[in-house]
TrEMBL record:
Chief localization: membrane
Identification of the protein by name: Fatty acid hydroxylase domain-containing protein
Organism: Rotaria magnacalcarata
Compartments, as annotated in UniProt: Membrane
Pfam families: FA_hydroxylase
Signal sequence coordinates: none
GO CC, alphabetical: membrane
Transmembrane segments: 20-49, 70-94, 114-136
């Protein structure tokens, strides 16, 4: 054990290694995107701004306002997440290099390559997420694993982090399956992927049908974003997808909240 400890921490080699650079890039990207989006969502949840409040989806309910119970739960879950990131991200680097290779120091790939790979990541994540999420709503798995994510029927960005550790592993599998399978990726592409995935999940939990910055504003049928995931939390079923509504439409589980209806 001490030999392992010495080889990792007592020499400076680990902190100059590609595994260390990879971990720093991935974790810092995650933290910046997560907290930038959530700072905005926490601000609009705490203060009444009528020009933004009009876009709240569940207007028939009071704002969450971050009561002590939600703050305690969020701090607890955020600490758990940060600790697991510190240990799991270097492992991800070794998984990448076991199956293929991550380019850390090389020149950024062409944009056509980056966009093609990101497209594959999104399609793969959306499919794995839909089916694992669909299964997590079967009675036994819901009761023992997924219920923890459904504590709040009225979601807000930070509630995206609520999950059982097993669900956390399933989610990470959905996110990283295609990048690992591709065998040859660049750290820039992976950081862009983390940015897109974190933004998507935080905005889907925002509780707001915001114009311009939400996918449903541009592609309401194909990418219903917060309108689909808010409906999912409000009812505890239906709309299981992440990026797209395709699987939900095929499986007959496509349902949306309508912020316009809520204002009537
Ligand atoms: Zn669910
Ligand atoms: Zn959710």
């Amino acid at each position: 054990m001490s030999i392992l400890y010495d080889s990792i921490f007592s020499s400076t080699s680990f902190f100059q290694s590609d595994a260390w650079i990879f971990s720093v890039y991935i974790i810092v990207t995650y933290e910046i995107v997560f907290w930038l989006c959530n700072s905005f969502l926490i601000y609009i949840e705490l203060f009444d701004i009528s020009s933004i409040d009009q876009y709240r989806i569940q207007k028939h309910k009071k704002k969450l306002r971050f009561q002590p119970d939600i703050i305690r739960l969020m701090i607890q879950q955020t600490i758990h997440n940060q600790i697991s990131f510190v240990f799991l991200t270097p492992s991800l680097y070794y998984i990448f290099n076991y199956f293929g290779h991550v380019d850390i120091q090389g020149v950024r790939p062409l944009w056509s390559t980056i966009l093609f790979q990101i497209g594959l990541f999104i399609l793969s994540e959306d499919t794995i997420f839909f089916w694992t999420h669909y299964l997590l709503h079967t009675p036994w798995l819901y009761k023992h694993i997924h219920k923890k994510h459904h504590v709040y029927k009225q979601p807000t960005g930070v509630t995206a982090v609520l999950s059982d550790p097993i669900e956390g592993i399933v989610t990470q599998f959905a996110v990283w399956f295609m990048p690992v399978l591709l065998k040859e990726t660049h750290i820039f592409t992976l950081c862009l992927w983390v940015t897109i995935r974190v933004y998507q999940t935080v905005i889907a939990h925002s509780g707001y049908d915001l114009p311009y910055i939400s996918t449903q504003y541009w592609l309401p049928e194909l990418m219903p974003g917060a309108l689909a995931h808010d409906f999912h939390h409000q009812h505890g079923k239906w709309s299981y997808g992440s990026f797209f509504s395709i699987w939900d439409q095929l499986m007959g589980t496509h349902r949306l909240s309508t912020s316009k209806t809520a204002t009537k």
